Amino acid sequence: FSVGLGLRHLFTKTMASTMKLKNAKDGEVVTRFPPEASGFIHIGHTKAALVNYILAQQYKGKMILRFDDTNCDKEKHEYEEAILQDLKTLGIKWDIGPTYTSDYFPQMLEMAEKMIHEDKAYCDDTPKEEMAKHRFDGTSTLCRSNSLEQNLKNWEEMKKASPEGLRFCLRAKLSVDNPNKALRDPVIYRCNLTPHPRHGDKYKVYPTYDFACPIVDSVEGVTHALRTSEYNDRNDQYKWMIKALGLRAPSLDDFSRLNMEYTVMSKRKLTEFVNTGKVWGWDDPRMPTARGLLRRGVHVQALWEFVKVQGMSKVSNTMEWEKIWNLNKKIIDPIAPRYTAMDQFRIPTTMKGVDAVSRQQALLHKKNPDIGSKEVTYGAKL
Asked: Which of 119, 252, 319, 381 sits at 20 to 30 Å (Cα–Cα) from 110?
């Protein structure tokens, strides 16, 4: 299923003509693909990876592969290895990495404390349901007016994950009543006692994706952070974090999230299917994972072509599987060898007028002799 260098170059060139980046200069573009190692990549992740890879190639730049490992309840080393292997199978190469968000935990802790000192963050122990109601109603909790000393004290307890610290989370002080609810004092740090896959028990507090992503994008030199349109409401939050921390701002751009008809794309639900035995595994041909699709007979080249057709479109819609099958047929029809197979018979038959068993050579593909030939056996008994 590997893509030949010539074909990959052809598709890279064709796809590039349908995708453009704002303020992009040849040789300076840096994109990133940041999967979470909490499952195998599916066709939606494949689209995101290809878009970042193709654009980096188009502008003679680089692509970073970064594992977003901030949620130690979900990450597993086996998923990480699977993602690396699947990307290679798909013909996607990264120039930098793999890196890990957790590589920057020390810097992020310092930045969180800086925000506390500058009154841009505060510790909040409001019960979860009550906090959700405050956010919905656009009102502040009592903790929002805590003193610097109180916030620093609670933050130290959080870092130790003491019984008192476990009650708190750290929230950024953006707004309490912004029409965009993503800007209503989002949580940027939580306590978690689950050992981290790479750091064990070293850390007891972990950043949220919305806090970590803009920091690591800036520090790693990402010039164009490409996100699916589901993050549109969070773009202003991303920009606020960059400004509040005084970091270099990557350019944000988005493309539509890939939805397939009659298909579950939630990684949580796909994991449940695997764990409960509803499917054979992540490579079950009924799964929308890259491995499942390849096992079902989809050619890598068809996936590339499918993504090329969509490009950087921002229009959200549900795609039909028939589009992939049609693309796949055009690709495999000229190269697929033809074989004949018969199911098991219950009634044997003998045909009259047929001589002894004979064998003849026949082409595996009538229109493509280069594929080779096969031996066909003729006889009286079926």
From this structure: 252
CA 17/CA 309 separation, integer angstroms: 11
- The structure's pTM equals 0.85
pLDDT at position 80 over 80: yes
**Tokens 């959700």 — which residue?**
132
Show the domains of the chain with their CATH numbers: 105-209 (3.90.800.10), 341-381 (no CATH)
The residues assigned a catalytic role are 36, 257, 267
CA dihedral over 298, 283, 231, 225, signed as positive or negative: negative
Residues 52-75, mean pLDDT to the nearest whole number: 94
The per-residue pLDDT for range 228-278, each reduced to its tens digit, is 888 888 999 999 999 999 999 999 988 888 889 999 999 999 999 999 999
CA-to-CA distance for 174 and 185, rounded, in angstroms?
5
pLDDT of 348 reads 82
Q: Residue 311: its pLDDT value, please?
A: 76
Provide the residue count of the chain: 382
